[in-house]
Write a structure and sequence with these properties.
Order of helices and strands: HHEHHEEHEHHHEHH
Shape: globular
Number of helices: 10
Largest sheet: 3 strands, antiparallel
Number of strands: 5
Strand order of the largest sheet: 1-3-2
Structural class: mainly alpha
């Protein structure tokens, strides 16, 4: 029975994992909007087979959470609808704020242990973005009054990761907002790319 419990992923859990995985991948991508079955399988860690996953995606399509596009030998490709984006964000907010596990959202424990590599990646990323902001007159001018707030939030983020065990709510709550802001404001520029890269590191912590 333990073996079944370890490997079993319910249909609803698979729906939620697929939804949040596509959300994360789409959020940090500059070009890819549609994802095939094999790509979605990889995004959720190949926990389910393609036959099962096709049924999962068909269910999400029926609920207007994804749109289906053209086929190739691996099957259709999918992108999130506006309703799908909202549903994924609702799941992630629930993960970060609820005391109870959220079915189908990876790493639903609110406290995680960061690896040395994760801590280093986050700290180095924050330092690199900080240097870009400090050295670029254009960035400083574009940020205006927001510059000091972002610098302060980054310092708070460094404090959060000094401990190996961190609350997801603290990590994401402190860093996600300024990083999203920079990724959107400086899209295509060095600062925006660094912010998206660091957001991806944080999403991987959530899904680890």
């Amino acid at each position: 029975m333990k073996l079944v419990a370890d490997v079993f992923l319910s249909f609803n859990s698979a729906r939620n994992e697929a939804l949040t995985a596509i959300y994360r991948a789409s959020y940090v991508s500059d070009s890819q909007e549609y994802y095939g079955i094999q790509e979605i399988q990889q995004l959720i860690g190949s926990k389910v087979g393609k036959v099962f996953l096709r049924k999962v995606m068909a269910s999400l399509d029926e609920d207007s959470l994804v749109n289906e596009s053209s086929y190739d030998e691996d099957g259709p490709y999918y992108t999130l609808t506006a309703k799908g984006w909202e549903a994924a964000e609702t799941l992630i907010r629930a993960l970060l704020k609820s005391e109870n596990p959220v079915e189908g959202v990876p790493a639903s424990d609110r406290v995680v242990t960061l690896t040395d590599n994760q801590r280093s990646s986050i700290a180095d990323g924050l330092d690199e973005i900080g240097r870009e902001i400090a050295q670029s007159n254009e960035a400083g001018s574009a940020l205006g009054d927001q510059k000091d707030r972002i610098v302060a939030e980054f310092e708070a983020g460094k404090s959060v990761i000094r401990s190996r065990r961190v609350r997801l709510e603290a990590l994401v709550g402190v860093l996600a907002t300024p990083l999203r802001y920079l990724a959107e404001k400086f899209s295509g520029a060095a600062i925006g790319e660094l912010a998206k890269k660091l957001l991806d590191v944080i999403w991987k912590v959530i899904n680890s």
